[in-house]
Amino acid sequence: MRLRSLLFVPGDRPDRFDKAAASGADALILDLEDSVAASAKAAARAAVVERLRAPRGDVRLFVRINSLDTLLEEQDRAALAGLSPDAILLPKAEGAASVHRLAERLAASRIDAPILPIATETPAAIFQLGSYAQANAHLIGLTWGAEDLPAAIGATSSREEDGRYTPPYEMVRSLTLFGAHAASVAAIETVYPALRDLNGLDAYARRAARDGFTAMMAIHPDQIAIINAAFTPDADQIAQARRIVTAFAAAPGAGALQVDGRMVDAPHLKQARHLLIRAGYPD
User: Fold this and answer.
1) What sign does the dihedral 277-25-216-27 (CA atoms) show?
2) Can you give the pTM of this predicted structure?
3) Collapsing DSSP states into helix, strand and coil, what is residue 121?
4) pLDDT in tens, 203-227
C-alpha cells in the first residue's frame, strides 16, 4: 500500500468528501471525533457510512472513531458494523492493550479493518510506545499528536515561538518514530497546523522523511501535493539506491564498498532497499 498523505475530513461535511478525494491524498481520514460537534455525531456517522458504501476509487478511506470505552465509540462501531474501512484511526490509544481491545470489538462488530493508533494523546500513553510490537498484526501504522497531550498535562504549548517542538514533545515524536519501526509498521508524522505556511510545511515534511517517517497527516487539501513530494524519493535518490544495491549484488561477500566516491556498508544497503520499496521499485 502506497501511503504518503492522509487527509482529515470532518465526517459531518460530506460536501467536502469529493474535493478531498480529488486532492491527491493517498487516504482520507473521515473523522467522527474531534472535528465533529456532539450534536452532529449522528449525522456524521450516517454520512461516513454512505461514503463507505459508495464506489471508492483510488483513495483509501480511514475512519477516526471516538476513544475507547465511551458511548460514542460504541455508537461508531454500531454504525460501521459489517463495513470494511481501509483502516480505523484510534484516538487516545495507550499501547498494545488498547489495540487488542479494539481489534476484538471490531471483529465482534464485523468490521474488517486494521488499526492506526494515535499513540501520544495521554500521559500514560507515552510509557506504552514500545509495546505496539505486541500488536503489530492488527496495525497499519503508528502516528502521534501534539495537541491533546499538552492539554492533558496543563502545558501552555507544545511549540516554541518559532514553531519548533519543545523538548518534551520532540521526545514524544522520537519515541513514536522508534515505536513504529520496532513494530515494523509505518511511522506517520502528525499534522502541520499552519495552513498558509506552505514553505514551513515543506520543511517540516522533508524533515520527517529525513528522520524516518514514511507518511504524514494533513488538515487541508492544499497541503497534499507538498506532503506527497516530500515522501516520494526523487530520481537521483532512486538512481543512487540502485547503484548501492547493484554494487553489493555484484560483490556478495563484501562488507563495505565504494559507491559514488564514498564508502558504503550494510546500513547503507538497508537504507537503499527501504528507499526503493517506498518508491515502488523492486531492488
Assistant:
1) negative
2) 0.88
3) coil
4) 999 999 999 999 999 999 999 999 9
